[in-house]
């Protein structure tokens, strides 16, 4: 299992009683991919730049795709640019793969087509692994979950308690900044839409 897969499962499970914004989750999943690729030696950070390393990516389809999409020419890509590029629609990609592999299921409900049902953890080994990691309060998963808006275990005063790796902290800071920026965009669009609606009402 990988950190983004664990995060995707936790987002579905812990988010059952609240809305987890797909955009926030997508940005956070892109950050989780970077953290796993750093741990595997597939890339290193030079300041905030993602520099491809020599090692092969882990035997995971989505992490392999992420590694293959790394920019391999100087000045390389910043963490921030990666989050926005790689993160576009990434939550739907992970959800689709987890459903296809049986780690998430769409529960059939009366009068609701099975394909449109809300995904839920399937009780698979992958789901149990994610739940165990979440229950243990593992710092990286907790910090990523906090950024994605999953607050149960991740809430706390310290931004990334228990994490001392500077590269991981750099990625987490970039993720949090990107999520804040995305929220600002959403709020601006809401204000603009309200102003536009008011103009039409007054016409």
Which descriptors would you attach to this protein?
single chain, mainly alpha
Structural features, described:
By secondary structure, the protein is mainly alpha-helical. It has one domain (3-202). The protein is built from 8 helices and 5 strands, in the order H-H-E-E-H-E-H-H-E-E-H-H-H. It has helices spanning 3-14, 22-39, 61-68, 79-86, 90-100, 125-135, 139-148, 166-202, and strands spanning 43-46, 49-52, 77-78, 104-106, 119-121. The strands form 2 sheets. A 3-stranded antiparallel beta sheet has the order 1-2-3. The protein has a two-stranded antiparallel ribbon with strand order 4-5. Helix 1 (3-14) crosses helix 5 (90-100), helix 1 packs across helix 7 and helix 7 runs parallel beside helix 8 (166-202). It is globular.
Along the chain, the helix and strand elements come as HHEEHEHHEEHHH
Report the radius of gyration as a whole number of Å. Answer: 18 Å
Q: Kindly name the structural category.
A: mainly alpha
Shape summary: globular
- Per DSSP, the total helix count is 8
CA-CA gap between termini: 56 Å
- Which band does the percent of strand residues land in? 5-15%
Mean pLDDT: 86
Major sheet details: 3 strands, antiparallel
Count of individual beta strands: 5
List the helices and strands and how they pair.
Blueprint: H1 3-14, H2 22-39, E1 43-46, E2 49-52, H3 61-68, E3 77-78, H4 79-86, H5 90-100, E4 104-106, E5 119-121, H6 125-135, H7 139-148, H8 166-202
Antiparallel strand pairs: 1-2, 2-3, 4-5
Helix pairs in contact: 1-2, 1-5, 1-6, 1-7, 2-4, 2-7, 2-8, 4-8, 7-8
